[in-house]
From TrEMBL:
<dbReference type="InterPro" id="IPR050595">
    <property type="entry name" value="Bact_response_regulator"/>
</dbReference>
<keyword id="KW-0597">Phosphoprotein</keyword>
<protein>
    <submittedName>
        <fullName>Two-component system response regulator</fullName>
    </submittedName>
</protein>
<feature type="modified residue" description="4-aspartylphosphate">
    <location>
        <position position="56"/>
    </location>
</feature>
<feature type="domain" description="Response regulatory">
    <location>
        <begin position="6"/>
        <end position="123"/>
    </location>
</feature>
<dbReference type="InterPro" id="IPR001789">
    <property type="entry name" value="Sig_transdc_resp-reg_receiver"/>
</dbReference>
<dbReference type="Pfam" id="PF00072">
    <property type="entry name" value="Response_reg"/>
</dbReference>
<dbReference type="InterPro" id="IPR011006">
    <property type="entry name" value="CheY-like_superfamily"/>
</dbReference>
Length: 126
């Protein structure tokens, strides 16, 4: 797994961005960029070269699910590994995310070990 790849984390809650960044740092991922909403994330993804997206579900004005759909609809980004983070573990949310092409799913709260496991699974299929 290439730990030098660029990772984009997306969350409208600054504290959560800091937590995810710190967890990634513990896992030796140091090339991490942040976006505070789906539209900003999409602009960064289209302008940059990212190997992984870790996005929160509940954001305004563009949700993580909407961001995922935009990424999957973009010919250049469609194969980008995408991990969704949410506080909701409702089955219909998991089903909706899977249907939209999510690579993996993490339910809050989570730790570095859970994050590593999910990233490893996603990158094994990338």
């Amino acid at each position: 797994m290439d730990k030098s790849m660029n990772v984009l984390i997306v969350d409208d809650y600054k504290t959560m961005l800091r937590i995810i960044r710190n967890l990634l740092k513990q896992l030796d991922f140091n090339n991490v960029e942040e976006a505070t909403d789906g539209q900003e994330a999409l602009a960064k993804l289209r302008a940059g070269n990212f190997g992984l997206v870790i996005s929160d579900w509940n954001m305004q004005p563009m949700t993580g699910l909407d961001l995922l759909k935009e990424v999957r609809a973009d010919a250049r980004l469609k194969d980008l590994p995408f991990i969704m983070i949410t506080a909701e573990s409702k089955t219909e949310n998991v089903v909706a995310a899977k249907a939209a092409g999510v690579s993996n799913y993490i339910v809050k709260p989570f730790n570095a070990e859970t994050l590593r496991d999910k990233i490893e699974k996603v990158m094994a299929h990338a």
